[in-house]
Task: structure prediction
Amino acid sequence: MTLLLRTSSDLAGISDDVAWIATTGTAPASVGRPQKLAQPARRLHAAFDEIGQDWWGLAQRLANGPGAQYSHALTCAAMNSDLGVMLAWSRLAGELAADERVVLMLCDDGFLFRHLSDLPGVEAGRPPRLWPGRVRRWLRGLLARTRHGGRTAYAALVLRSSRRPHRKSHRKSGGASDGTCLIVYGHPHSGAGQDAYFGTLMADLPGLTHVLHTDCSLATARRLGAETAATSLHGWGSAWAALGGLTTRWRPTGVELAGPHGWLIRRAAELEGSGAAAAASRWQTLCQAAWLDGVHPKAVVWPWENHPWERALVHAAHQRGIATVGYQHTVVSKHIFNYSPKSNPDGIKGLPQSVLCNGPAFRRQLEALGVPKDRLAVGGAFRIQIAETSNFDATGPVFVALSNDAEICRQMMAAVVDAAGPGRHFLIKDHPMYPYAISETEAIRATSVPLTEQGAVSAVLYSTGTVGLEALLFGLPTLRFLPEARIAADILPPGLAPVIVDAETLDGALDSLDPPPAVPRDSVISPVDLSVWRRYLPAA
Result:
């Protein structure tokens, strides 16, 4: 009933007969040991399934600390923070420590190591040093915030003139509070007549005004301003205030660091402080508040994911009597913890007054996460498109949709190489925003064509992203790949069940695949219903 905790360079005296598992970020020196613990990926993902309440509890306890309002860790956003992964390792370590056999856990992360060493049943060796990484992260964070401050101050000065036509357009529409404004990210695929998040909604509802989030670069803001008459929120910010982001970061206090999760809280805060995410959230918050004061629209709508800037937007809008409408534009699942009001310091008060969902399955999932039923409606899906007919062919290649995570891509490709052969071919498509170098062979070919435009395929392999959802609704055999020491968040609603595989089981699973049970598409994703959008967007 012991868990041996060691770094990858401190293994002297431990028998090769002891089964081992390596945590996130651990050096690969451990591969020379023969007795790897069975199903490491499944074990970690099973632990991750159970950490929601722990993460929400931490978010509530830490919500009022300095800079906490800008923290992604405290919004419980699994796509933006790996605090949930650390909580899963803690849970798994506790389970292994209570097991009858001795297990070796290899951990090169200094914070996680110190946290795990305090758990009952853990026999820890010498911990990794903390100071080299802390110095690197401090310097990196300072440089990142300096760069962000300079760029946003310049953008504020250059785009300041975009205020006037935007304010004037609202006054022409009949008063400063007549319009409905659409806040969108600066996506490279957006342009005249088409937005990457809202499709043709701007053309369909010409009363909408287009507003660009501060993630939008200066070049993209200028392009979209010319093509769509969009205004950039950068122009509503103060260049002097932009420089205040140099010192903006989440800083947990000594009281907040006390308790069983203190080391993990330190780790999460330092990782966030090594970049400019908090400074970026602060800048968006300042710009949108100034814009709300200057324009005072009747309503504001945006692609809702309950991130820090969105919570600030909800509060600022409600204080000014402005209606808020969030669009659930992507997916919701048991692993997307940030959508729950349990992650909000003030619960449902931090949610938009209305949330338009892209389908009934995701509406039900939001209800299960605690979003009030009377705030939800189905507006339809702009982004997720499902083909009408299946392109299944048992003799076709396996379509592989790579992740946006380079390490997950590496593990997927290693498994594909092992499973490829004369009778089995793979088509590999990397993520459009995160290119990955693919080594082609006779059995492995790269493609830039999305799944819905492919010819015949025999199956689909994915790990993260919406391709798995598309494949299942398309009627294709679908495999979800679980990586080791990483979490591939499950984005599927209940009722859709891909075949779960890892590096050890992919080859065998491909030998016995059948198309999945048919699922009515309209029970998951709905077509866009403009009558719903008109009902919820006043003066649009």
Notes: The chain has three domains: 3-129, 156-238+274-385+528-536, 398-521. Residues 168-177 have pLDDT under 50 and may be disordered. Residues 131-158 form the longest helix (28 residues).
